[in-house]
Amino acid sequence: MGLASVLKPLAAIGCFVVAFAMVILLGPPGIVAAAVFGAVVWAVWRATTYSSESTTPERTNCPSCGARNDVSAEVCGYCGDPL
Protein backbone atom coordinates (compact mmCIF):
# COMPACT_ATOMS: atom_id res chain seq x y z
CA MET A 1 0.00 0.00 0.00
CA GLY A 2 1.73 3.13 -1.23
CA LEU A 3 1.71 6.56 0.31
CA ALA A 4 -0.33 7.95 -2.59
CA SER A 5 -3.17 5.51 -1.88
CA VAL A 6 -3.37 6.91 1.66
CA LEU A 7 -2.91 10.58 0.82
CA LYS A 8 -5.43 10.87 -2.02
CA PRO A 9 -8.48 10.01 0.13
CA LEU A 10 -7.23 12.32 2.88
CA ALA A 11 -6.75 15.11 0.35
CA ALA A 12 -10.28 14.56 -0.96
CA ILE A 13 -11.71 14.80 2.56
CA GLY A 14 -9.67 17.94 3.20
CA CYS A 15 -10.94 19.54 -0.02
CA PHE A 16 -14.52 18.73 0.94
CA VAL A 17 -14.03 20.34 4.37
CA VAL A 18 -12.54 23.49 2.80
CA ALA A 19 -15.38 23.77 0.26
CA PHE A 20 -18.00 23.22 2.99
CA ALA A 21 -16.35 25.91 5.15
CA MET A 22 -16.42 28.35 2.21
CA VAL A 23 -20.16 27.84 1.80
CA ILE A 24 -20.88 28.19 5.54
CA LEU A 25 -18.61 31.18 6.17
CA LEU A 26 -19.20 33.17 2.99
CA GLY A 27 -22.84 32.36 2.25
CA PRO A 28 -23.94 32.58 -1.42
CA PRO A 29 -20.55 33.87 -2.66
CA GLY A 30 -19.05 30.85 -0.91
CA ILE A 31 -20.95 28.55 -3.27
CA VAL A 32 -19.19 30.15 -6.23
CA ALA A 33 -15.84 30.08 -4.42
CA ALA A 34 -16.34 26.41 -3.54
CA ALA A 35 -17.23 25.58 -7.16
CA VAL A 36 -14.09 27.31 -8.45
CA PHE A 37 -11.98 25.62 -5.76
CA GLY A 38 -13.46 22.24 -6.70
CA ALA A 39 -12.78 22.80 -10.41
CA VAL A 40 -9.14 23.71 -9.75
CA VAL A 41 -8.63 20.71 -7.45
CA TRP A 42 -10.23 18.39 -10.01
CA ALA A 43 -8.04 19.76 -12.82
CA VAL A 44 -4.87 19.29 -10.76
CA TRP A 45 -5.91 15.77 -9.72
CA ARG A 46 -6.68 14.82 -13.31
CA ALA A 47 -3.38 16.24 -14.59
CA THR A 48 -1.38 14.30 -12.00
CA THR A 49 -3.36 11.07 -12.26
CA TYR A 50 -3.50 10.77 -16.04
CA SER A 51 -0.08 12.02 -17.07
CA SER A 52 1.15 11.50 -20.60
CA GLU A 53 4.25 9.69 -19.37
CA SER A 54 3.71 5.96 -19.28
CA THR A 55 5.15 3.99 -16.39
CA THR A 56 4.60 0.62 -18.08
CA PRO A 57 7.47 -0.94 -20.02
CA GLU A 58 7.27 -0.87 -23.79
CA ARG A 59 5.85 -4.04 -25.29
CA THR A 60 5.91 -5.72 -28.69
CA ASN A 61 3.93 -8.55 -30.29
CA CYS A 62 5.48 -11.91 -31.08
CA PRO A 63 5.43 -12.43 -34.87
CA SER A 64 4.60 -16.15 -34.41
CA CYS A 65 1.86 -16.25 -31.75
CA GLY A 66 0.99 -12.56 -31.26
CA ALA A 67 1.65 -12.57 -27.50
CA ARG A 68 2.80 -9.33 -25.83
CA ASN A 69 6.45 -9.30 -24.72
CA ASP A 70 8.87 -6.70 -23.37
CA VAL A 71 10.86 -4.96 -26.08
CA SER A 72 14.10 -6.14 -24.45
CA ALA A 73 13.12 -9.84 -24.64
CA GLU A 74 15.00 -11.95 -27.14
CA VAL A 75 12.51 -14.84 -27.24
CA CYS A 76 8.75 -14.96 -26.75
CA GLY A 77 7.80 -15.80 -23.19
CA TYR A 78 4.84 -17.86 -24.43
CA CYS A 79 5.90 -19.82 -27.51
CA GLY A 80 9.71 -19.53 -27.24
CA ASP A 81 10.21 -18.30 -30.80
CA PRO A 82 12.82 -15.55 -31.34
CA LEU A 83 11.56 -12.00 -31.43
Please give a structural write-up.
The protein contains two helices and two strands. The chain has two domains: 3-52; 56-83, no CATH class. It has 83 residues and is mainly alpha-helical. The protein has a two-stranded antiparallel ribbon with strand order 1-2. It has helices at residues 3-26, 28-49, and strands spanning 59-61, 68-70. The longest helix has 24 residues, at 3-26. The chain crosses the membrane at residues 12-45. Residues 60-83 form the Putative zinc-ribbon domain. Pfam families: Zn_ribbon_3 (PF13248).
Please outline the helices and strands.
Blueprint: H1 3-26, H2 28-49, E1 59-61, E2 68-70
Antiparallel strand pairs: 1-2
Helix pairs in contact: 1-2
Which percent range describes the beta-strand content?
A: 5-15%
Number of helices: 2
Count of individual domains: 2
- Poorly predicted runs are none
The helical percent reads: 55-70%
> Number of DSSP strands?
2
Mean pLDDT: 81
Radius of gyration: 23 Å
The strand line-up of the biggest sheet is 1-2
First-last Cα distance: 36 Å
**Mind summarizing the main beta sheet?**
2 strands, antiparallel
Structural class: mainly alpha
Q: What is the H/E order?
A: HHEE
Shape: rod-shaped
